[in-house]
Amino acid sequence: MSELSLKNATEFWEKQDEGSVKMERLALIQEMEKFISSHNTCALATGAEDFVRCTPIEYTYKNDAFWLFSEGGLKFRALSKNNNVCLAIFDSFTDFNSLAGMQISGKAEMIDMWSEVYLNTLAFRKINPEVLKKSGNQLYLIKIKPTRIDYLCSEFKKLGFDVRQHIIFSAENALS
Asked: Does the N-terminal or the C-terminal CB of the chain have fewer CB atoms within 10 Å?
C-alpha cells in the first residue's frame, strides 16, 4: 500500500468527524453506559515493543472504570512495560444498518491482591475470597480507566446524528 493510501486511511475518521452531527455529551454518555452494561466480554489489546496481544476477557464496569479478573497470561508481559490499552466491545455483525461497536482507549492499573479495592471487587462479582484462597488459584485484577471512547452505532442515524461518536476524557472528567 502506498504512503498516500495509508495516510488517507489513517485520516478517514478525522475527516468524517469534521462535519459530523454530534450528540450532546450527557446523552452520549448515557448511550455508552447502556451499551457497556449490556455486554460483559471485551477484547483487551495490550502491547510493548514488538509484542502485541489481544485477549477475550470478561469485564465489570463500575465507578467509571473497567475491572477485569485474570488468572494470568501473556497480556501481563505487555502490561508490565506499557499501561496503555484498548478494549473492543461489539455486537455480532448482521448488516450495515445494525452496527454497534465500541473502542475504549485507557490506562491499565494492577490492583494489589487482597487490598480493600480487590476485596470489594471480589464482593461485587460475588466471588468468595475464602473459596478463592482454598482453590490455590490466583486472580489478578486489572483496572482500566478510559481516556477515550469511540462508539459506532447505526441507531444514532435514526436520531439525526452521525453513526460514529466519541468522547475524550481528562483525568478529572470521568464517564459519568
From this structure: N
Phi and psi at residue 122, in whole multiples of 5°? -55, -45
State pLDDT tens for residues 67-95.
999 999 999 999 999 999 999 999 999 88
Parallel, antiparallel, or unpaired for β 41-48 and 84-90? antiparallel
Q: How far is CA 65 from CA 9, 60, 115, in A?
A: 31, 8, 17
Q: What is the pTM of this model?
A: 0.89
Domains of the chain, with CATH numbers? 3-168 (2.30.110.10)
The mean of the pLDDT values for the chain is 92
Q: Are 135 and 122 in contact (CB under 8 A)?
A: no
User: Do the beta carbons of residue 132 and residue 122 sit within 8 Å?
Assistant: yes
Distances (CA, A) of 142 to 33, 117, 121, 123, 176: 20, 11, 11, 16, 20
**Residue 136 CA from chain centroid, whole number:** 29
Nearest-angstrom CA–CA distance, 141 and 39 = 19
Check residue 79 and give its pLDDT.
97
Query: Burial, 107: exposed, middle or buried (Cβ in 10 Å; 0-12, 13-18, 19+)?
Result: middle
